Each structure stands twice: as C-alpha cells, then as structure tokens.
C-alpha cells in the first residue's frame, strides 16, 4: 500500500509504503524472528515463548512495554445458559447448581477475589511485565474527576456500600489489588451456606470456552482455572476447559445472535475499547435493552425475568439513568457514574482482568519512533489501530532508554495540553 500523493495533508504522512501481515496467534516466535530478519518494522515479543531468552539477549537494550490502553479485557459469566452442547456437566442437577451459583452475589464476589490477575497477565507478559496490564475496573480507573480519579470515587462508594468486604482493597491499575484469598474464602463460605440451603450440589462446574489455536488464550484460561481452584478448592469449584477452534467458538459466543445460543459458563474472549471519552461507553454495555448483555452476561430481553431480577439490573439501570441525566456538570456526571461502577464491582457481574486487548501494555521491539503516531483514548485513530498518519519509522530498533525519554517528554506535553484545554473550556462554558 503506497502513500496517496493527492491526500490533502500529505506532509504529515511520513511512510511511503506499508505492508500489513496477518498473524493467527499460533506461533508466538514468528513475529520476533521476522523483526530480526528485517521483515517487520515492529514486533511484539512474548516473554512466555520458547525462544524468548534468545530474543531477550539479542534485543536486551530494545525491549520495552508500551502504554496501557483505556480499553479493558474481562472474564464474562453466563447467567441465562440454556444450551449445553459443549459441557463437562453430567446431569441436570449440575446445570441447575451452576446457574444458581452464578446468580448468587457472594459466589461471584468469591470468583472475583480468587482470580490472580498477576498470574493471568504473566501468561502473555511474563513475570516482569505482568503488573503493567492489570485492570480491576471496567471503566478506566485513572479518569480524572476534579481532584480525584474515577477509581478513587468508586472505592469511596464501595466503602459506603459494604466496608468489611471492600476494606484494604485497591482497584488501581497495574496492581493485583482484588486478589485476596482470605476475602474470597470468607464470601464463598456465605455463598455455599445459602446455596446448600437451596439444594445446590458441589463442586460447581464452570465450562470455560477456550480457542485452542491461541497459545495466549489457552495459557490464560489455564491460569484462571488454577487460581480459582487453588483459592476456593476443587471440591467447591471446578473450571472445565472446553477447547475448540475459533470457527467453532465464535458462533456460540461473540457471533451468537441471541442469548439462547451462548453455550458456555465462563470465557475470556471479550473486551471493550471506548467509542468516546465518557464512562457511559463502558458501563452501558450492561444495559439489557442495549444488546451487549447477550455477549457479556449471556442474557437478553427474552431471558427469564426472574434471572434478570436476581441480577439487580433494574437497580443498575436507574443508576445509569441518573448519571446520564446530568449533562451540565461533567464532574457531577462522572461522580454518579462512579456510583454505577461501584455497583457493578460489588455485584461482580463481570470480572475485569487486563487493560485494552488491542496490543497495549505489552512488550515490543520497534523501529517506529516513540510517540510519533497519533494518540487517542477512544475511537479508531490510536497507535495500534492501523492509522498511520504522523507515524515515523527509523532505520534501526529504538532502545528502551530512548522510549522512556520520549515517554517522559510526551507525558509532560500531554499534561500541559490537557491543562490548556481545561482552561479554554472553562472560559467558554458558563
């Protein structure tokens, strides 16, 4: 693909020719090898690959971790499952027990506290880079709201909701702050007691949908299984991996037209990248009438009303309506959305685990000049979107030191630019 010399702003198109190469996710070494052979200008390095030590030595001064994105990758839970073509369950009693368990708030909280996000992230980022990608809230923690961050407001709201459950818990990015074996066991004990009174059989079997072609996906779900079973005990919860091809997995998950076709209990295939810079673009994904709940929650408007009622989505909807109605004061609007995020976290309807799935907070070697690409928190013009205007490519691989210096300069300029924009906004909005 060649540069368009008739483009109105061609001076800012720095690349003359570009060739994109498709990667199916199977061979984690092929990208690094291609970079070393001069085929690629940029390559992701997988610390868990079989040849990582070789490339870590070859590029010891060049490997860097890029910035976490605003998007989020999550562990989805299915609350309305009716299809069981891919399952380890051997009886109707096991199916009913799983559904009752997932509809129990304390059971979901136990799963949330039992997930070791550091181990989960390490399956692709390695031990050294694992923390960089950790995410604990569905909407971005670091969104600024007055003198506090959005995440700090969420934690304040959680403390008011249930101080014992949410004390000594950090929701900050890049921290394994939700992983807490003691809390997981404590809330699970409450869940098990009430569920046994309903006739629920243990262990609870969770069918985990896994795309077998992707080494990263398989490793992450295996990590998820290990941490949940270790903390809660395999006599209480068993995660059963249902491995299949992508062609088999998508029609019963991401591409399923209705909730009825969703054939899984738990999966890690979904994430969300924002369309615009407002908490609503994240939190509206769990509004029943919006259509996305069939993907994230396994329910839609045709799901049994009792299931929807037990999840408390009507209460959540009221919080969102209240926040969305505030369209004059941005700070008040975000404060109200923080209350909605706190509700979502407390009810553990979904389990956020990592930052944006679009190749952010991961390790690279690159000839692309750091921060020469366009930057966008939302939309389709960020660095890893394929939008190449402004992007500059050098002759040799940049060093980690060069990347860090460029990052410091970029952050300083970004802060100054944001402050200027806020002052200009204040002078225009009365």
How would you characterize this protein structure?
One of its GO terms (cellular component) is cell envelope. The chain is of the alpha+beta class. It has two domains: 10-66 and 362-428, no CATH class; 72-355, Dipeptide-binding Protein, Domain 3 (Dipeptide-binding Protein, domain 3). The protein is built from 16 helices and eleven strands. The strands form three sheets. Strands 3, 6, 7, 8, 9 and 10 form a six-stranded mixed beta sheet that branches. Strands 1-11-2 form a three-stranded antiparallel beta sheet. Helix 5 (117-129) crosses helix 9 (215-232). The termini are far apart. The mean pLDDT is 93.
Summarize the structure in short.
The chain is of the alpha+beta class.
Task: Give the helix/strand layout.
Elements: H1 30-36, E1 42-44, H2 52-58, E2 64-65, E3 72-77, H3 92-102, H4 105-114, H5 117-129, E4 144-145, E5 148-149, H6 150-161, H7 163-166, H8 181-197, E6 204-211, H9 215-232, E7 237-244, H10 246-249, E8 266-267, E9 271-272, H11 280-283, H12 293-296, H13 305-311, H14 313-325, H15 330-347, E10 351-355, E11 363-366, H16 400-428
Parallel strand pairs: 6-7, 6-8
Antiparallel strand pairs: 1-11, 2-11, 3-8, 3-9, 3-10, 4-5
Domain Solute-binding protein family: 2-292
Keywords: Coiled coil, Signal, Transport
Pfam families: SBP_bac_5
């Amino acid at each position: 693909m060649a540069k368009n010399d008739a483009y109105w702003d061609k001076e800012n198109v720095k690349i003359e020719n570009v060739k994109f190469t498709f990667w199916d996710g199977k061979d984690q070494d092929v990208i690094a090898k291609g970079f070393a052979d001069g085929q690629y200008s940029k390559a992701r390095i997988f610390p868990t690959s079989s040849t990582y030590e070789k490339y870590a030595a070859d590029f010891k001064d060049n490997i860097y971790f890029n910035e976490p994105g605003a998007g989020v990758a999550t562990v989805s839970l299915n609350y309305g499952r009716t299809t069981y073509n891919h399952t380890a369950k051997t009886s109707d009693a096991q199916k009913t027990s799983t559904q009752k368990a997932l509809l129990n708030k304390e059971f979901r909280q136990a799963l949330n506290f039992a997930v070791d996000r550091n181990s989960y992230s390490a399956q692709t980022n390695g031990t050294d880079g694992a923390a960089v990608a950790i995410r604990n809230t569905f909407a971005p923690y670091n969104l600024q709201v007055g003198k506090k961050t959005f995440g700090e407001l969420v934690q304040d709201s959680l403390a008011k909701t249930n101080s014992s459950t949410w004390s000594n818990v950090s929701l900050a990015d890049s921290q394994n702050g939700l992983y807490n074996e003691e809390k997981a066991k404590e809330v699970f004990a409450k869940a098990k007691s009430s569920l046994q009174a309903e006739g629920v059989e243990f262990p609870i079997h969770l069918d985990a949908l896994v795309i077998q072609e992707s080494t990263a996906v398989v490793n992450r779900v295996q990590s998820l299984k290990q941490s949940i079973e270790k903390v809660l005990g395999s006599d209480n919860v068993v995660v059963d991996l249902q491995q299949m091809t992508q062609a088999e997995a998508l029609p019963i998950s991401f591409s399923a037209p209705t909730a009825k076709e969703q054939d899984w209990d738990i999966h890690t295939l979904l994430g969300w990248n924002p369309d615009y810079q407002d908490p609503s673009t994240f939190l509206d994904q769990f509004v029943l009438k919006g259509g996305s709940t069939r993907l994230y929650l396994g329910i839609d408007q045709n799901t049994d009303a009792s299931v929807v009622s037990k999840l408390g989505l009507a209460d959540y909807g009221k919080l969102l309506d209240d926040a969305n109605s505030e369209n004059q004061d941005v700070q008040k609007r975000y404060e109200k959305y923080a209350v909605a995020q706190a509700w979502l976290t407390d009810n553990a309807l979904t389990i956020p685990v990592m930052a944006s799935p679009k190749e952010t907070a991961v390790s690279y070697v690159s000839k692309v000049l750091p921060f020469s690409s366009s930057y966008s928190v939302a939309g389709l013009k960020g660095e890893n979107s394929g939008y190449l205007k402004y992007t500059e490519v050098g002759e040799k691989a940049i060093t980690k030191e060069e990347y860090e210096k460029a990052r410091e300069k970029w952050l300083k300029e970004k802060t100054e630019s944001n402050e200027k924009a806020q002052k200009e906004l204040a002078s225009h909005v009365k």
